[in-house]
């Protein structure tokens, strides 16, 4: 049986292709740019016959419709009304044959009301389940968050998720592989393991959903405080129709420094260089989102209507940044700065700077009461451990909740290592804070030096 996991870096997303015998293949939860799936099938002499959706994804735009248009594949979903366009709707417990492989649909609500899992039975395993495509129901070491449908029903949804796992997935046997829709780096779980591979037996021995009672699991999920990016709402809408085809590619829209300067007033500039480079010199008013963070944080500062202008460190990085934005439904890149900031600088155009500091220097400033410290990690990270006396606002909420300190005062910003605080520092500069310092190394460096911290009880 052919099997391939296709990972999308930045989103922590996993899609899967399964060769099901008789030259037929199934793709599970594809992202919007589908060329990799089409090529993989062609290279292995497979025809993509079906696209399986585990649920209406919210953190990326589906490629189901595009794959259907290109290959003629039929889209398979559950029967819940929250699934949009589908050609085959499977009820809970209903079997579905593709080539020599049997799929059994399992309704596993909790993460979302419509969530489905699919048990996979290749011909040579007969009635022994080989694997379960769990979507966001069950991850490696974790489960999907339960707050998204309604934060007030987080506990109730957690109870449903606990029931789904124990009633629908547990009976499939310890030998079954678990193939979730997300891995490490996803916004869908607070403690997803960095491992990709697991079995139901391993999860039963390690995953909290199996180790805790229903009531204790509900309490655990209620204690999770994970940020909800604003672009999720847009993804919910477009994924009702299986996602949209990619539009014209903006990678070729290279602008000279003068053109860039004139046009950037129409929208927002995202500088994808590392935070150290951004601190040294950047275009005034630009946002600093490091390249690998564009898929996660681009949707916090822009939406599908925002005109975007990009700065990359190397020209070949432009398609990567544009694809990352397209995967979260943002197609509005207007152009890329030719030769990056080097060309801008050599054209004599104005630059801005912000400060950087070390954990040791920041600790000295704090001891002397010569600086304020702002922690921009998420609430779960903050609750686990933080610097005594620090202020806290998650970076995604910072523009709406600026720190209550004088804009001329020295302000040290930190996250875990320095990337999110690079974005935070750029936000603060945009809002008139004049003495902003990104603490490079973040709380990891602070901890490594043994500097004082306040730990969670």
Structure description:
This protein is an alpha/beta fold and 457 residues long. It is built from 16 helices and 23 strands. The strands form 5 sheets. The protein has a 6-stranded mixed sheet with strand order 1-2-3-4-5-6, covered by helices on one side. Strands 7-8-9-10-11 form a 5-stranded mixed sheet. The protein has a 5-stranded parallel sheet with strand order 12-16-15-13-14. The longest helix has 16 residues, at 154-169. The chain is globular. The mean pLDDT is 94.
Tags for this entry?
457 residues, alpha/beta, six-stranded mixed sheet, five-stranded mixed sheet
Topology of this structure?
Blueprint lengths: L2 E6 L4 E7 L4 E5 L6 H9 L3 E6 L11 H8 L2 E5 L9 E3 L4 E4 L2 E7 L8 E6 L9 E5 L18 H16 L7 E4 L19 H7 L1 H4 L2 H10 L8 H7 L15 E2 L1 H7 L4 E4 L3 H6 L6 E2 L5 H8 L6 E4 L6 H9 L6 E5 L2 H7 L8 E3 L1 H9 L4 E4 L3 H6 E2 L4 E2 L18 E4 L4 H12 L5 E4 L2 H7 L5 E2 L2
Parallel strand pairs: 3-4, 4-5, 5-6, 10-11, 12-16, 13-14, 13-15, 15-16, 17-22, 18-20, 18-21, 21-22
Antiparallel strand pairs: 1-2, 2-3, 7-8, 8-9, 9-10, 19-23
Helix pairs in contact: 3-6
